[in-house]
């Protein structure tokens, strides 16, 4: 827990400036004020399982990560911690999805301006 506090403290000054991207698999310890947008990538469970198998994940890690996707654990965590108007859910099943996601996020970043 102390490490998480240190991480948040270190990020706080950087986040105040804006224009940052934070990539993490949990969000319940990041304050809402740090983000203008929260993106949740979702993948079909069978696609996710195949990806993890190709990466050589252990059976335990395969099961744990696949269960998290099936039960939408991260999405629920995001919904509990951030307002709906800043949450974006994107599919990430195929290369086409990923390409579209990159285009969507690149466009959003290009048009971003700090809230004054």
Automatic annotation (TrEMBL):
SUPFAM superfamilies assigned to the protein according to its UniProt record, in alphabetical order: P-loop containing nucleoside triphosphate hydrolases
One matching Pfam family: AAA_18
Keyword Nucleotide-binding assigned: yes
Presence of keyword Isomerase: no
GO biological process, one term: rRNA processing
GO molecular function terms attached to this record: ATP binding; kinase activity
Annotated InterPro entries: Adenyl_kinase_AK6, P-loop_NTPase
Protein name: Adenylate kinase isoenzyme 6
Entry keywords, A to Z: ATP-binding, Kinase, Nucleotide-binding, Ribosome biogenesis, rRNA processing, Transferase
């Amino acid at each position: 827990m102390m490490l998480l506090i240190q991480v948040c403290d270190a990020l706080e000054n950087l986040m105040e400036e804006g224009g940052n991207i934070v990539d993490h698999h949990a969000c319940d310890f990041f304050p809402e004020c740090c983000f203008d947008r929260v993106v949740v990538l979702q993948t079909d469970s069978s696609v996710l399982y195949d990806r993890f198998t190709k990466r050589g994940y252990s059976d335990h890690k395969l099961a744990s990560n696949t269960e998290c996707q099936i039960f939408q654990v991260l999405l629920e965590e995001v919904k509990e911690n951030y307002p709906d108007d800043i949450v974006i859910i994107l599919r990430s099943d195929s290369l086409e999805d990923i390409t579209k996601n990159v285009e969507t996020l690149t466009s959003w970043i290009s048009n971003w301006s700090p809230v004054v």
